[in-house]
Design brief:
This protein is mostly helical. The chain contains 21 helices and 6 strands. A two-stranded antiparallel ribbon has the order 1-2.
């Protein structure tokens, strides 16, 4: 172990990283809770397929705006300041989504929650990247994905037990409120915890240097990495900023009249993460499995299994990402998703059709479950955590906020389009064709990584080139 690593306050680094990743937990919970509420929303607001899609996807509009605004706001208010605002929005959204009495009211609160999710999704990994040492930055940033998946998993478990306790998501549970409303209100607990934790963590030292607050930045870096490393890091940050001579702004993404290549790589990573269709499984898992013949209770339990598989995959990535790098995981993940999506296409294409229009998988039901879980495993081994890790570390200091804003906006816009179109695709072209599109995108993502993505393992943030 080198001298610098001996002086690191590793416990402090891990604790503040985990505090930041509560935002990831809320990101996951807010995304996953909708899965068990679709039937309740449809009944309460009389939504058809397009309306149902918008009720589910409305949060993602807020996510796109929140992610886009996050870069500019984080450069103005700080990484910590922006996350505090996001935590307040999480609290308001969790309460409002459950109390809503109309689609318009529900959509308003979901968009508000989306603003929080979008901001937290890009700023939590950026904050972790800016306080973590290069040798373990990948592992710490990957905790963000563990938190996201644990949030999803917790939402699935909460939905399952609440629905079982009441006899269904549309049944009254406590205080004359339907179960689906309580599914949203459970989120109030972690949202309040997130707010409290953010009050005690330090601001990003790189943001403090950009703002000219060198004394505060050095104090934070000494607590994190020791005095010798603090001085070296301050010098490196200042050197990376000396050629620019102005505060970060969106136009820094351009060079020589063209958008920087690194920005296009970030956009590609963000877009492909969604085009492989992963959030169809997370947002519509219960609907999907009911469409192929499973009961609501069985469908919710399948979601719990999916969450457990996701956590296992992320743990593997955490243990190996700083040894093997980022690119190998992306390539393996894309290949694995392609194979399993094509298997699901074959199963759905060869299924029978019941009188109510649902598919009958017959003897292929087990194969479908295995393939679906394998697909989720490969995603969470690769694109799930690694896209956020790379976006948090691949941009130079001057454009990190702006680069994250653009990539985050693209990621959430693609998420919205995939989520909004799935119910329409389900009723128009069927499950097999929908999953065929996702399989094609997974295959194309292999070529994208091989030709465009460069390894960032072990590099300091100050050495990142645009």
């Amino acid at each position: 172990m080198n001298n610098n690593s001996q002086k690191e306050n590793l416990l402090f680094i891990v604790l503040i990283s985990m505090a930041a990743t509560i935002g990831g937990f809320l990101f996951g919970f807010d995304s996953g809770v909708i899965n068990g509420t679709v039937d309740g929303l449809t009944m309460a607001f009389k939504a058809k397929s397009i309306g149902q899609g918008f009720n589910v996807a409305s949060m993602l509009l807020g996510c796109a705006v929140g992610a886009f605004a996050a870069g500019t706001l984080a450069d103005l208010l700080g990484r910590k300041g922006l996350l505090v605002i996001a935590s307040v929005f999480f609290v308001i959204s969790a309460w409002g989504s459950g109390i809503a009495n109309s689609s318009a009211e529900f959509i308003f609160y979901r968009i508000l929650g989306g603003l929080a999710v979008g901001a937290a999704s890009v700023m939590a990994p950026a904050y972790i990247a800016e306080i973590a040492p290069a040798r373990m930055r990948g592992s710490l940033a990957t905790i963000q994905q563990i938190a996201i998946i644990f949030g999803l998993f917790s939402a699935f478990i909460s939905n399952y037990f609440l629905a079982n306790a009441a006899g269904g998501s549309t049944q009254v549970l406590w205080l004359d409120y339907q179960t689906w409303r309580w599914m949203f209100w459970v989120e109030l607990v972690p949202a309040v915890i997130f707010f409290v934790c953010l009050l005690v963590i330090p601001e990003s030292p790189r943001f403090l240097v950009i703002k000219g607050k060198h004394k505060e930045a050095k104090g934070t870096l000494i607590k994190l990495h020791g005095e010798d490393q603090a001085k070296q890091t301050i010098d490196e940050i200042e050197k990376s900023l000396t050629a620019v001579h102005h505060q970060p702004k969106l136009s820094d993404l351009m060079s020589g009249g063209k958008v920087r290549t690194i920005v296009w790589v970030g956009v590609g990573l963000a877009m492909f993460q969604q085009l492989v269709g992963i959030n169809v499984v997370f947002y519509y898992g219960a609907v999907l499995w009911q469409a192929v013949g499973y009961s609501e209770s069985d469908s919710l339990m399948i979601n719990v299994i999916v969450g457990a598989v996701s956590i296992i995959a992320c743990v593997i990535t955490i243990s190996l990402i700083d040894k093997l790098g980022r690119r190998p995981f992306l390539i393996i993940g894309s290949a694995g998703m392609t194979v399993n999506l094509l298997t699901l296409v074959w199963v759905f294409a060869n299924a029978g059709v019941a009188e109510n229009g649902n598919l009958i998988l017959g003897g292929n039901g087990t194969l479908a479950l295995i393939s679906a879980n394998a697909y989720v495993f490969f995603f969470n081994l690769s694109w799930g955590p690694i896209m956020w890790v790379m976006l948090g570390e691949m941009f130079p200091n001057q454009i990190r906020g702006s680069g994250l804003a653009i990539a985050g906006f693209v990621q959430w816009t693609a998420n919205f389009l995939i989520t909004m179109t799935f119910p329409i695709m389900l009723t128009s072209i069927g499950l097999a064709s929908a999953y065929g599109f996702y399989a094609l995108c997974a295959l194309l993502s292999v070529a994208f990584v091989v030709t465009m993505v460069k390894e960032t393992k072990g590099k300091t943030l100050e050495s990142m080139q645009g």
